[in-house]
Amino acid sequence: MTVLANRPGISVIVTSYERMIALHENLSSLLNQQLGDIPIEIIVVNNSDKIMLQPSRWTKLGRLLRQHPEIKLINARHNWRIYFRYGITYFAYYDTILFLDDDIHFLDDKMLLDMYQTLMSLGQYDIVSCWNMLWAEWDDDQVSHVSATLFDPHVNTLIKTDTSGPGISMFHRNLVLDARAQNHLITWNIPDAGDYALGLLSHMLWGGTTYAIPAYQRATFSQEFQRNALHIKEKNFVTDRLRLFKEMLHNGYTPVIERKNLSEDSPEMQLIKRMDLKSNPW
Fold this sequence. Notes:
- The protein has eleven helices and 14 strands.
- The chain has helices at 20-31, 60-67, 84-91, 111-120, 174-177, 182-185, 197-206, 230-233, 237-250, 256-259, 267-274; strands at 10-16, 40-46, 72-75, 96-101, 104-106, 127-129, 131-138, 142-149, 159-161, 163-164, 168-172, 210-212, 219-221, 278-281.
- Helix 7 (197-206) packs parallel to helix 9 (237-250).
């Protein structure tokens, strides 16, 4: 069980880049979440040098920010991409962190509460996401995998996975603040991999587990999800990500299906059986 930290609550770090419709949907859904007495902090990191996020009367987003001065705005004026949110984690107030891309928003007003309560029932270095990948086969040339995502109605229980999408991952801040994590998370030598190391890191360093949580019809992507998306802007996004996975495998990461014998009716094996394998060279 996760030990409640000194500051129980949720710090949501939203990374934004020139997607105003998406960001409005994102923040509106966060403000509508029913959390009971669990406190929440919302921090928006704007990586654009063309847009200044600020409260105003003249835009839909500006009016939302004006109505909610508790939302903390950081206008970086430089595209630090997704790395910047690691730095913000040091200044976040609460001990549970949710990384959230601006193109994702919640449809279910209890989704955030469910993620938090689920994480609290797990280990200190575990991760909860709804954009996950489970490795099924691999060798020195390629990896074959299946996905557990918010679009799959058959993901109806927690599933152990290998990776989580950093655009929607919840974890205890110690995972990021620990000095042992830094060389793996800030991957300047594999620049277009972004922070996809996060999902593997919990197990590689501390024996934690990354989980997919049921999210079908509870969260979705904005109509702007393709606008300025990293997988479009960064030409090596896929190849660098896979190169990072292979490097971490060689450095001690143990894939889920190798950690212990999984029964044929386990959620993980059922996922592998149900879905077509996708293979990528790495």
